[in-house]
Amino acid sequence: MHRTYSLRNSRAPTAAQLQNPAPPPSTTKSGRFFGKGSIAHSFRRSTAGSLGPELARKLAQLVKMEKNVMRSIELVARERREVAKQLSAWGEESDEDVSDVTDRLGVLIYEIGELEDQFIDKYDQYRITLKAIRNIEASVQPSRERKQKITDQIAHLKYKDPNSPKIVVLEQELVRAEAESLVAEAQLSNITREKLKAAFNYQFDAIREHSEKLALIAGYGKALLELLDDTPVTPGESRLGYDGYEASKQIIIDCENALASWTLDQATVKPTLSIRRAEPEEAYSLEGHEGQQEFEEEEEEEEEEPEVEEPTVEKEAVATA
């Protein structure tokens, strides 16, 4: 029997990808200088909290920790695909029904690994958006420091030489510095809220899509298990011949069609809120803002739940199994 891990040679764009084009590959998938283990994770987390402007250090550390999360998911995705191959290899020498079902189960498990790999790319959009807040925090730090420096100079002169003509000049500079600081602080406040909302919309949309597609796969996987005859046999007794090849193939086809046609609009798991909002949620903007400064030059360049319906399998095909 020809064994395959996927029924398609090339993938057409799914409905979800047509609705929202897939993001570029995650930046965590390349540019590794310190390996993939916990030492690299700890190094990134500790250095992010000690470098760069003080105002942006906590968020910089969060961004680095999210990179560790993504690299861990990447490892899980890779191991999941290896598990799928091993499951199929193990069942190949078994009875016909076990061989066929384990091969089809391998297809579904492999697809889970593929979904996790796609999830990483979408999750990276959340992390990249958080970096926009980090960058604006870094750009605000100099204006705060300048204002504080002028304030300290004025206080020092008033103590040392109250009649110094420099005091008037410094006070004028302080007025300008405060005006610049007000603009910078307002920009920080606005961008923080905008980007925070956008970032977590990215993350939660990715989680909803990933979770619902996993639920779909689980439903079709349980349908595959129904093809196995687990009726106990006595020693010397033979089982009825297996006739579920077409049914198992159709289950895989139905599963792939369900995954390909899923869109975020079809998500059916909705939150039930006990409070009511006065106004509808405003759309969030993902447009960039000028004036944001990168402060970690050594860092590599970054980044609805359909009802889990019972799989549509022809009753006659399953019955014959």
Assembly state: single chain
Distance between the termini: 18 Å
Biggest beta-sheet profile? none
The name of the CATH topology is: Substrate Binding Domain Of Dnak, Chain:A, Domain 2
Secondary structural class: mainly alpha
Q: What is the percentage of strand-forming residues?
A: under 5%
Low-confidence stretches: 5-9, 280-308, 311-321
Number of strands: 0
* Residue share in helix: 55-70%
Features:
321 residues, mainly alpha, Substrate Binding Domain Of Dnak, Chain:A, Domain 2, 7 helices, elongated, disordered C terminus
What does this 3D model show about the protein?
It is a single chain. With 321 residues, this protein is mostly helical. The chain has a single domain, classed as Substrate Binding Domain Of Dnak, Chain:A, Domain 2 (Up-down Bundle). The chain has seven helices and no strands. The chain has helices spanning 15-19, 38-48, 57-91, 96-160, 166-225, 245-261, 315-320. Helix 2 (38-48) runs antiparallel to helix 3 (57-91), helix 3 (57-91) runs antiparallel to helix 4 (96-160) and helix 4 packs antiparallel against helix 5. The longest helix is centred in the middle third of the chain and has 65 residues, at 96-160. One of its GO terms (molecular function) is lipid binding. Residues 1-34, 278-321 are annotated as: Disordered. This is Sphingolipid long chain base-responsive protein PIL1.
